[in-house]
Write a structure and sequence with these properties.
PHF5; two-stranded antiparallel sheet; alpha+beta; two-stranded antiparallel ribbon
Length: 104
């Protein structure tokens, strides 16, 4: 997701033990490269991102999380899963779109 939109910023802190989750819209997507192919390793988020109600939020878009997030095989092979917490901290225009969708 962060590769395609320049205004998004990843957390990239040391991951903790909490497993990240994805919403129904983002289900099956790799949080680093947006691939739907061969999910391999579970996504771990940092303790700061897992505090309070945020641990049940989607790692990519910030919606309500329903399923665990996984890195794809290519991201695990190229060790992009070791960069840090993949949660997007500033949602930018995505958050605004979600706000207006929710108002409808």
């Amino acid at each position: 997701m962060s590769r395609h939109q320049a205004d998004l910023v990843l957390c990239l802190k040391q991951p903790g033990t909490t497993v990240g989750s994805l919403c129904e819209k983002c289900d099956g997507r790799c949080p680093v490269c947006d691939s739907y192919v061969r999910p391999t390793e579970q996504v771990r988020i940092c303790d700061e991102c897992a505090f309070g109600q945020d641990k049940h939020r989607c790692v990519i878009c910030g919606g309500k999380g329903v399923s665990p997030a996984y890195y794809c095989f290519e991201c695990v092979r190229t060790e992009k899963n070791r960069d840090g917490c993949p949660r997007i901290t500033t949602l930018g225009s995505t958050r605004m779109d979600h706000y207006y969708e929710k108002r409808k």
